[in-house]
Amino acid sequence: MGSTVSLMRPDTPAENVDHTAEAARLERTAGLYPEDAEALLLQAAAHLELAGDRPAATTLYDRLLSSQSGLENPYLVRALKASNLWEYGHEAEARAIIDGVRAASPRDPAPWVIVAESLEAHDELEAAQETFTEAARLLLTDVEEPPYSTHPLLFGRHRVRRMLGVAHDEWDTVADLLHSSPVSLDELHDPKRVWSLGSDNPAELAAEISRLRAELGTYREALSRPFPVAVLHWPADELRELVEAYPTLASEYPSHEEHLATIEGSLRELAASGTPNLGIVTGTVPSYEAFAASEMASPGEAELLPQYATTLAARGRAVEWPPQRGAGCWCGSGRGYEGCHGV
């Protein structure tokens, strides 16, 4: 869930992995599984960036953006393209894309974090702070508990503001509270940290090693975060086709309206019981039939449905529940979640 910002870019050095070969493998896999092509091609582009072939990565981003089938996360792709372009000299085009992403005000925190970090990486600290703040204002105003996906937004904003030397505000305080490492954000984001690396003082070096260990622990925790506990959702047309093809599943889905109500009710029960990291995966009949074939089982077996949902979640197909404030409802009605199933 999905989505994730830095998780879109593998961090294994090029000398340890043949990133070009891995990108080619992912492109071939995308051809075999078109329903997962967006996620697979984004990973392929990340490998190409790590291999140093940034023009080839841009070609993949352009391929996604020109897709006729539509993208689940178009602003994420645009943000990644802008970040990549700026790294090999196309600053003007990158800035134009970044301005477009900001103007579009996406409800997903990932594009915001990517463009803000791109600005930060090129010493545009004021613009980075403004971008982080725009996103926080859009996504977190009147939100009691910031969703996990927004944590990088708050941490990045805290880091940039620390470098600018500005006083803490309310969102910086929230970032401090969300940060679980034994080393505080103020210490991790101290602009003077770089000097300790060249220090001859054993105490300063030991303190920096502790800070690095804390950062590594936080990074590992983010990488090991499990995929969401996901509930399976069928759009109306897909559910009709599913039940017509496999009548034994009719008892599972008496009607589409009841199916949607059951999804929302199940997720609210899970949330009330304290289950974290909840999501929704959307099924299609061809994908479900392919999954059943891979399991050497009949698609008409109801026991297969939760396994299918888990597999989709593990492949990064889950969307976060509840949706971000102001986002469209997960059911596809076109209405905002607050005015639809979020009532």
TrEMBL record:
Entry-linked Gene3D superfamilies: Tetratricopeptide repeat domain (1.25.40.10)
Name of protein: SEC-C domain-containing protein
Species annotation: Streptomyces longisporus
